[in-house]
Write a structure and sequence with these properties.
The protein is an alpha+beta fold and 259 residues long. The chain has a single domain, classed as q2cbj1_9rhob like domain (Jelly Rolls). Helices cover 24% and strands 23% of the residues. The strands form two sheets. Strands 1-9-6-11-4-3-2 form a seven-stranded antiparallel beta sheet. The longest helix is centred in the first third of the chain and has 14 residues.
């Protein structure tokens, strides 16, 4: 399948240098590049049908974790922002359950799309995961399921909304709430957010929207799904070096299997 059949290239000329430079500027200045209607309706319908058909294969789990996605610091109180727990609950199917003929896989594998992502993010190389599970994931959130507040470990993330629920599941964030490279964790700011004293921004999106998001310093969450319609979201994950695998512990935690 060709990118002309997947992407609205008239609205989003990803091969155009000027468009790429403008997109990179948006990502750098706002922390998020939001491209509504990036996926053409026919391709989106195919992605929706595939995701719905394969939902029965999803591994569902709920996890308690810190905002910083790290171990508890025993030198600090349990109610310290570094140690306070939030919950994430979702289902996930892995790369090996995405059909070979899927437009989602064609998008992920296309040299032109990777060139666009490299131009926007400033990465010199992009490679798939070496393990068979981690490159393309589809996340499912049913009623009451959510993604708790956290900072990402990676420098950027790529998501594609496939299906939107009728209520809830809002993507909420605060840009640059910490500076991880400088070692500034901003515990006071995180504590204020967890206590409800800070109002986050909301990133609005409809099915077919592609988002590139810098979540390493921008805290974010997806609020609980408040409807009976499942939220379905594809995550496209690349590495800046070949041969990288998600750890066995992470695969068991997130996918319930190693291969």
């Amino acid at each position: 399948m060709d990118l002309n059949d997947i992407i609205d290239l008239e609205t989003y000329p990803i091969f155009d240098e000027t468009f790429c430079e403008k997109s990179a500027g948006t990502l750098d200045s706002s922390g998020a590049l939001v491209l509504p209607g990036f996926i053409l309706p026919k391709a989106l319908s195919a992605m929706q049908a595939e995701a719905e058909e394969n939902e029965s294969k999803a591994y569902f789990c709920a996890q308690n974790h810190t905002v910083y996605l790290g171990p508890v610091d025993e030198t600090l109180p349990t109610d310290h922002p570094r140690n306070r727990m939030v919950e994430s609950s979702k289902g996930c199917i892995c790369d090996d359950d995405v059909p070979q003929a899927s437009p989602l896989r064609a998008l992920y594998d296309a040299d032109g799309f990777r060139a666009f992502v490299k131009a926007v993010t400033g990465e010199r190389e992009l490679h798939p995961y070496a393990d068979p599970l981690s490159s393309i994931n589809i996340h499912y959130a049913n009623r009451g399921q959510e993604l708790g507040w956290h900072f990402d470990n990676s420098s950027f993330a790529i998501t594609l909304l496939i299906q939107k629920p009728e209520a809830g599941s809002r993507f909420e964030y605060i840009k640059d709430l910490r500076d991880a490279d400088a070692g500034e964790m901003n515990y006071d700011g995180v504590g204020a957010l967890l206590d409800g004293a800070l109002e986050p921004d909301v990133l609005m999106m409809e099915p077919g929207t592609l988002v590139l998001f810098r979540g390493r310093n921008s805290i974010h969450r997806v609020s609980p799904n408040q409807s009976d319609k499942t939220r379905m979201l594809a995550v496209l994950a690349y590495n800046n070096a070949p041969g990288v695998e998600l750890s066995e512990n992470a695969r068991m935690t997130f996918y319930g299997r190693l291969s």
